[in-house]
Design a protein that fits this description.
By secondary structure, this protein is mainly alpha-helical. The protein is about 50% helix and about 10% strand. The mean pLDDT is about 100.
């Protein structure tokens, strides 16, 4: 997984930003979303990022 991959173009959120949010205590997509703002712009990335966050939560 490329940690520099942009997963939310509206806010330029990268995989590494989500990982940092999880490492700092986020335990759900909604909590990661609050920290990173991912998916709060146009909303087009919400479904794919829910899957990604669940994968990251299992890993970290």
């Amino acid at each position: 997984m490329d940690e520099n991959q942009v997963v939310c173009g509206c806010y330029n959120v990268k995989v590494q930003d989500m990982i940092q949010a999880i490492k700092k205590g986020a335990r759900s997509f909604e909590e990661v979303q609050k920290v990173t703002k991912a998916g709060t712009g146009c909303g087009g990335c919400v479904e794919s990022n829910k899957v990604l966050v669940n994968e990251l939560l299992a890993k970290y």
